[in-house]
Structure formats: structure tokens, C-alpha cells
């Protein structure tokens, strides 16, 4: 080809082209060099660091979590809570599961009061189902999910600490509300809290579930939840309850260990009474607790065994809020 | 042969022998049957269950621990503590490291007041060294070691719970006394407790060591300790101090994680003032804390880096002693 160029009219044209070509090549090399310098450093694909070092605002998938909050008939509480939760450290995004069928999402209000620290996605539902919040949402980018009921306020301090605990126990449900089952001589299980008899393994009480209405867990469990026996979905739909018990069964079965790790909250509040809607949560229904005992037994049938395991580990934050909260008389 | 027997004098002799032989055979079969019925059932060789189920008195290597208590000039406290500790659940054996050089062990007293629930071995030492307790004693049969100072009384409840926690975190030092190091702009480290500035990772305080004078740890670490750089032994001998800091360095280096897990004690007592010997512990020496800061910096040199990592996890027992000790205002 070189010789072809040389055949063009005159040596002058050939030299110009050569100069032009050289300039183009040099410019391209400079641009390439600049691009190389701008490439991000290769980061080690580390496991979540056990020690939470102060981070920049880079909210990578390992270092941040997605809040999933399902809401029904308490939009005033929802908006109050969103103002609080949108500013929690390490929050990546909020997914609001909108169970107010046929009602418009408050997107206008939300946008008019922007800008907001993180994206908030409203997922409009077609049927008001308790298990809507357990879908594997495509908007979910983080490994960690924080699931909160739409009437529960947990302090930022508690959430920041519990998130760091979850990072050390990523296969567990790490949360603030412990519950247990007990077995009876008849073999029938009963569901409850501290008011029930201790399971009898040494001193003190035990818990075998951590409720997902105020807890961190791995987003992979939402995927797993899509692959459960149909009877599980039927049970949750029939009772409009027990999705959290089902999740604990799922996690316990998966790990062979206690499903949850209980973090004792310093400041957790139920805002139910503050709502203008007059709507009070499902747990006020007369049959609520009986339903949950019923669910435990049904799930044992469905899963052909009792996978839940007991734990008596209670985790608190060292030196917070009281800087000497670990002192004992010595 | 049958025909040979028949050749014996008379058919009568033959019939008797036949009858006798048959009886012998039948008896042998009955005995064999009885032995088979008495054979023990084959048991699964299970991993230690995360849930501590009530056990029989079979103290297998996985389900029990060895108490190692070093003693110097406080035999009255030693005997008081032995009465308490000898009855702790899941205790396999006690090893008393006798640093009273030239003094007779109280074996006569001990035996005269028997029988005792567990074997107690007195290991007579030739030199009064702090690190004598960190030998890899041949009498040690369990995976778990409980190390206690000879002036520290921890309740059985606390020990039973902490042992169950250790079983869930076997690579950590699980104990009741947290401490930390802090770094300073000069790069020099300082050792201390909650009175020191927080390391500055979010809210609250952090600890980076759990002292071995009241803690469970894996017996394998005693083996590892025998293989440390000579400079470590020299440092401990020079200061008669810091063996516990050295152990924390060892464990942190080994695991790449925080060395300890802090269990908040309900009832821990220092019996120092109760001794008749007039001897008060090493930690009353004026230079004690300064020595420990010195040790931290020396160990960083020896190990060519700071392996200690921070944790803010504080573990308590759910529902004990107060059965609703997990309740928060909700």
C-alpha cells in the first residue's frame, strides 16, 4: 500500500499524508495513554471485612443494603419512616412494596420533596398479599436486605450495628425480634415469646426464630423463597400471616443451624398508634398467635420435620450507648 | 470322625457323647445370642451440636474442657476456688500450675478431703515463670481449655454459657475481660481498656484482645505457642507479664480475625483482698500497664506487623438471669 500512496500526484502529497498519519497515530497513543491512567485499580474481590472500616460513599454491593418495606393502609407512617430510613448509613436503595391496591403511589409527593439520599422504588402490587415483600425484586442489587415493617422505627445506631453483625453472620437472619417454638408431649408445637416455658436446655431462655419485620438477611434467600413447595405459599395466603416463620424454616433448613442471630435493640419503637388511618396491624387480630402456632405445625408437615434450632446468643454493641456498658462488679 | 466315635465301646457311649455334644452346642449358641443382644448400638459420630442438649456424664473430648490455673503465693485462694471450679458442668480435669518453687503441693490436704468430682493434677514448676501456664501439658485431653487466674471467681452460670459460646466460636478466645490497643499518630501503640479513646470506627468502643486469665480457648493454641519466636518468650520472661497479649497476637495472626469474643459476665469477682498471704497480684505493680503497652509495641516488631483486629460484639445470655432481659420499650 505504501507504494500505492507514493503513486499519488507528487512527492509533496505523499509527505503530507505521512505527516498527517504520524500526527494521528501520536494523538491516538496519547488518548490511549490517558485512558489507561484513568482505568480503576483492580480491587480484590474480598469477602466482607469483619471489621467495618470507615468507608467513602462508594456503596458497593457488599458494603450496603437494600431496605424493603411493605406497606398497607398506613401511608402516613410510611412517609414518616422513609424520612428516617432514607438517611441510614450504608443504605443503597429503598423498595416500597405497595399493597394499597388501586391506590396511587405517593410518587408526586415524594419527588416534590426531593432530592433524596437514595433511590426509592415503589412496587405496585395487584393483589394485597403478605408475601408480596418476599419477591426477588429485579431492583435488588445488594447482597444484604433490610426488611422492616411499615410501623417499626429502629434507630440508625441499632441498624448500623446490626448490619455490621450481619456482615459477620451473612447466612443468618440478624434482627431485633426473637421468638421461639416449644414442643409439647403430644408432639404438637406452639409458637410464642418469653412468656412461654423455656425449652429447657440449661439456664435461661432460647429463641428459634428472628422475625423478618426488623432484620437483615441475605438477598439469596429471596431467590430461595421462590422455589418453595406450593403449600407454603398457600399457607401464607390462607393466613395472611407466617411469611416470616416460613423464612426462618427456609434458613434453618439451609444452614442446619439456628436461623437467626438476635441483636438487642437499644431503641426500637412501634408507631402503630401514631397512624391517622385507624388501621392497626395484623397482630391485633384475635387469632394472630394461634395462627402462628398453626403455621409452625403446618410447616413441619410440609418440610417433613422441624428444622428450627435454638440459640441463646444475645448480641449488644460494646461500649454503646454507655461507654462502660460492659463493666461488671469485679 | 463320626465313624471313629462309633467305634468306641458300645453304642451307649456313642449316644451319650452325642447328647453331650448337642448340649454343649446349644449352650454355646445361647451364650452367643446373649452376647449379641448386649452389644452397644452403633452411634453416629456427630459434630458437636450447636444446641447444647442435656448430656449424660460422658465427658468426651469435644463436650468438656480442662481448667488450667496457675498459682503463686495464694494457696488459700487456690483451694477456695478449687472447691468452686471442681463442680462446674462439663469440666473434665483441673491442671494446677504450681509456681511456688520449692514448696510442697497441697496434695495431702487435697486427697484427705476427697473424693473429688474430677481429677486435679498439680504440675510442679522449677522456675516461677508467668508463661508456665502456657505449656502443652500431656495431661490435657480436651479440645477446650478454660484458663483462670488464681484470684478470679466466675459463676458456674457464666462459665457454662461461655463454654457453649466457645463451642460456636472454637477458633477464638472466648472470655470475660476485654482490652484494646490504640494507635497514635506517631505509630506507637498504647494498651488499655474503656478509659482509652475509642478506636474511632463508628459508635461505641471496640476491643482487640480478650485476656486469657478468664477465658476459653482451643488447646491447639498451646501447641502453637511452643513454636513462637524466641523473642516472645524472652519478652514474657523479662516482664513477667504479657503472656496473654502474646496469645492474642498468636490467635489473631492465625485466624486473620479479631482474636477474642467477649461474653459479658453476670457474676465475676476478684478475690485478691481475701487472701491471707498478703500477696496482691502482678497488676498492682506501678509499671504494669506501661509494661503492657511496651509489650504491644515489642510484639508488633517481633511479628512484623499489628495482627490484632477490633470487634464490638458483646454477647450475653438470652433470658438469663432475667427471663425478659431482651425486652425493649416497643
TrEMBL record, chains A, B:
Transmembrane feature ranges: 20-42
Enzyme Commission number(s) of this protein: 2.4.1.223
Protein's membrane topology: Single-pass type II membrane protein
A GO biological-process term: N-acetylglucosamine metabolic process
Annotated catalysed reactions: 3-O-(beta-D-GlcA-(1->3)-beta-D-Gal-(1->3)-beta-D-Gal-(1->4)-beta-D-Xyl)-L-seryl-[protein] + UDP-N-acetyl-alpha-D-glucosamine = 3-O-(alpha-D-GlcNAc-(1->4)-beta-D-GlcA-(1->3)-beta-D-Gal-(1->3)-beta-D-Gal-(1->4)-beta-D-Xyl)-L-seryl-[protein] + UDP + H(+)
Family listed: Belongs to the glycosyltransferase 47 family.
The protein's name in its UniProt record: Exostosin-like 2
Species of origin: Pterocles burchelli
Amino acid at each position: 500500500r505504501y507504494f500505492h500512496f507514493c503513486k499519488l500526484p507528487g512527492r509533496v502529497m505523499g509527505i503530507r499524508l505521512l505527516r498527517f498519519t504520524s500526527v494521528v497515530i501520536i494523538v491516538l497513543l496519547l488518548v490511549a495513554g490517558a485512558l489507561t491512567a484513568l482505568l480503576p485499580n483492580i480491587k480484590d474481590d474480598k469477602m466482607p471485612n469483619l471489621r467495618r472500616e470507615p468507608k467513602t460513599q462508594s456503596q458497593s454491593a457488599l458494603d450496603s443494603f437494600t431496605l424493603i418495606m411493605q406497606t398497607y393502609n398506613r401511608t402516613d407512617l410510611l412517609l414518616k419512616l422513609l424520612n428516617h430510613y432514607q438517611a441510614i448509613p450504608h443504605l443503597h436503595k429503598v423498595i416500597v412494596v405497595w399493597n394499597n391496591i388501586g391506590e396511587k403511589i405517593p410518587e408526586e409527593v415524594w419527588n416534590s420533596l426531593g432530592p433524596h439520599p437514595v433511590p426509592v422504588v415503589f412496587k405496585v402490587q395487584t393483589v394485597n398479599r403478605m408475601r408480596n415483600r418476599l419477591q426477588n425484586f429485579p431492583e435488588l442489587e445488594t447482597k444484604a436486605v433490610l426488611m422492616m415493617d411499615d410501623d417499626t422505627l429502629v434507630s440508625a445506631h441499632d441498624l448500623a450495628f446490626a448490619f455490621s453483625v450481619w456482615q459477620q453472620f451473612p447466612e443468618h437472619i440478624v434482627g431485633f425480634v426473637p421468638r421461639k417454638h416449644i414442643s409439647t408431649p403430644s408432639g404438637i408445637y406452639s409458637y410464642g415469646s418469653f412468656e412461654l416455658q423455656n425449652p429447657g436446655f440449661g439456664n435461661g431462655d432460647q429463641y428459634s426464630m428472628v422475625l423478618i419485620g426488623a432484620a437483615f438477611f441475605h438477598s439469596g434467600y429471596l431467590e430461595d423463597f421462590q422455589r418453595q413447595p406450593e403449600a407454603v405459599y398457600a399457607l401464607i395466603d390462607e393466613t395472611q400471616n407466617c411469611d416470616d416463620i416460613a423464612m426462618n424454616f427456609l434458613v434453618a433448613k439451609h444452614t442446619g443451624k439456628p436461623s437467626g442471630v438476635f441483636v438487642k435493640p437499644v431503641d426500637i419503637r412501634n408507631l402503630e398508634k401514631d397512624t391517622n388511618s385507624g388501621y392497626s396491624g395484623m397482630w391485633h387480630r384475635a387469632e394472630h398467635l394461634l395462627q402462628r402456632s398453626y403455621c409452625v405445625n403446618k410447616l413441619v408437615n410440609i418440610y417433613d420435620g422441624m428444622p428450627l434450632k435454638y440459640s441463646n446468643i444475645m448480641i449488644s454493641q460494646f461500649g454503646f450507648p454507655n461507654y462502660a456498658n460492659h463493666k461488671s462488679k469485679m
